[in-house]
Amino acid sequence: MSVEEVMVGLKNALARGQTIEKATQSLILAGYNVQEVQEAVRQTNLGVIGNIGVVGETNNKNTPEFKKLPTENVQQKPDSDWDSQAKEKTKKPIPKWLIVSIISVGVLLLILLLLGVFGRMILKAFAG
């Protein structure tokens, strides 16, 4: 991985409203080389990132093409907005035991209801 590729990741994160600190930590946690991330941050802080774009489709020479991102009017959201959006999107699945329990209780209630309505008919049929 090159410093330029890490800088593209930094620029994309900044365009999404992340702080440079959060973007740096995310890249390191994602497995990028710490020295390359630090160098990309240093170059970003020097203003070099303006020349780097987002990796697009590759051309016939198997080298990435870069697309320019608009850098003006990028508004940064507060961290609390990002946290609340992440919490809204991560819903816990319903445990299987709860689903089985609800279905079992429903079946039991249905059986009791049917016995209450048709119980005498069933007893008469078996009693003869």
Write the layout of secondary structure elements.
Blueprint: H1 3-15, H2 20-29, H3 34-45, E1 54-58, E2 64-67, H4 79-89, H5 96-127
Antiparallel strand pairs: 1-2
Helix pairs in contact: 1-2, 1-3, 2-3
Describe the structure.
A hairpin with a 5-residue loop joins β1 (54-58) and β2 (64-67). The longest helix is centred in the last third of the chain and has 32 residues, at 96-127. Helices cover 61% and strands 7% of the residues. α1 (3-15) packs across α2 (20-29), α1 (3-15) packs across α3 and α2 (20-29) packs antiparallel against α3. It is mostly helical. The chain is rod-shaped, with a radius of gyration of 30 Å. The protein folds into 2 domains: 3-89, no CATH class; 92-128. It has a two-stranded antiparallel ribbon. Residues 48-64 have low confidence and may be disordered. It has 5 helices and 2 strands. The relative contact order is 0.10.
Task: Name its key features.
two-stranded antiparallel sheet, 61% helix, 2 strands, mainly alpha, 2 domains, 128 residues
Summarize the structure.
This protein has about 130 residues and is mainly alpha-helical. The protein has 5 helices and 2 strands. Strand 1 and strand 2 form a beta hairpin.
